[in-house]
Amino acid sequence: MYAQQVGGEPPRKGRRGLVVGLVIALVALVGGGVTWFAVAQGDSVAAGSANPTEAATNLVNSLGNGDVVGLLSTLAPAEASLFTDPIEEATTELKRLQVLDGNADPAALSGVELKTENLVFDDAAAEKVNDHLTITKLTGGTLTVTADLSKIPLAKDFIDAALSDRDRRELEQGPQTQTIDIGKEVREEGQPVRIATVNVDGEWYPSMLYSIADYALLEEGKPWPQQSIAANGAGSSEDAVKQMLQAALDADVSRVIELLPPDEMAVMHDVGPAIVEAVGREEPSGATVDTLTTETAPITGGTRATVTAVEMTGPNGEKASITKSGDCYEMASEGRTERLCASELAEMAEQEASDKLPPEVRDVLVDLGAGVMEQGLGVVTTEVEGKHYVSPIRTFTEAGMTVLRSLQPEDVKALIRAAN
């Protein structure tokens, strides 16, 4: 089993951030949603590689060829889907909100071009963590990033409203290029760029999530755990949400990790023991989730479980409940009942604000509150081999989509005017 070197001169955190950023750029620049990337893979299966170095090399070759579809196909399939699944709906919503041009194509990368040259991997230094994880070492080559903001498919009205004269002049300057000498960065950092690769069904893929976790462990001077926390899902989407809430109330970090998807969140299971150790022993709340009900609906990549009612018992036997009714939530505890509706949110925000809110901003809050309250709290679950798990990244993405679906084009323009 592999053990990382600990001790010696502590790493320079300022440069570490640059190296981690380089890894993310190499592994999944498009995954962060900073720009538009290709999702037009249809039903094709991601193509793996025969060994870790080939997997990392295929990744950077895809960058060098400007082949964004090829870039995504090199990532571990479950991980890639985390970032590709929501793009089509997000693009549709941003077009509706008149942020993106009506012709914007999520299957086309624009605004950023990447080029790699003369990449060198140190095969002898590759670290085999276990049978499905190997850390490759990139030691040389160059990465050139060319950004042309004028090619980002923003709607003209949005550009006119959002950008100052100075911003427009910057757009008109044309492409901006920066080249990173990987060998120089490696020499100054004192260690190579680490790209994690994972074995899925006998083939190797580069992984953004494992690469980030690897750098986090390295930063703390910790080795990869020798054992993982096995996945242990629930019998239904609703049960997965209920059990996750109970695990959080119990401060049971191990159980929380057990309820994460074993495919897209495999990294959390492998790094889980280190997380449990870092968190330490937390005091349980003593509360019990008696009942939790949801309304479920399929979404791309999973199931949206909208929480409609929760009944709990506190550590001293006190009862409490929250129930959703339309765009209102009713909270009951110890004989007292309070009701909060979407129409009240704007008024509450206005009361908290130091200055009176402009009428158009208040209208934005009305739309946002009504949309969010009507859609409700959505937790996204996935099913793997008959078991159901809570997907944190998909849940976070769905929260963003909930906000987008709640807004209207005039709301975006109003927020821009208020910001200016």
Account of the protein in words:
This is Flagellar basal body protein FliL. Keywords: Cell projection, Cilium, Flagellum, Membrane, Transmembrane, Transmembrane helix. The chain is an alpha+beta fold. It has 2 domains: 13-220, no CATH class; 237-419, no CATH class. Helix content is 42%, strand content 24%. The model is unreliable at 1-46 and 66-70 (pLDDT under 50).
Layout of SSEs?
Layout: H1 13-28, H2 52-64, H3 68-74, H4 77-84, H5 87-96, E1 112-121, E2 127-130, E3 133-147, H6 156-162, H7 165-172, E4 176-181, H8 182-189, E5 193-200, E6 203-206, H9 208-220, H10 237-249, H11 253-258, H12 266-279, E7 288-299, E8 302-313, E9 319-325, E10 328-333, E11 336-341, H13 342-352, H14 359-375, E12 378-384, E13 387-390, H15 392-406, H16 409-419
Antiparallel strand pairs: 1-3, 2-3, 3-4, 3-5, 5-6, 7-8, 8-9, 8-12, 9-10, 10-11, 12-13
Keywords: Cell projection, Cilium, Flagellum, Membrane, Transmembrane, Transmembrane helix
Transmembrane segments: 18-39
Protein name: Flagellar basal body protein FliL
Task: Determine the structural class based on helices, strands and strand pairing.
Answer: alpha+beta
Which strand-content bin applies to the residues?
15-25%
Task: Report the count of strand segments.
Answer: 13
Taking Cα atoms only, what radius of gyration do you get, to the nearest Å? 24 Å
Shape: globular
Largest sheet: 7 strands, antiparallel
What is the mean predicted local confidence, pLDDT?
83
User: How far is the first residue's CA from the last residue's CA?
Assistant: 56 Å
Low-confidence stretches: 1-46, 66-70
Helix-strand pattern, N to C? Answer: HHHHHEEEHHEHEEHHHHEEEEEHHEEHH
Q: How many helical stretches?
A: 16
Overall number of structural domains: 2
Helix content bin: 40-55%
Keywords: Cell projection, Cilium, Flagellum, Membrane, Transmembrane, Transmembrane helix
Transmembrane segments: 18-39
Protein name: Flagellar basal body protein FliL
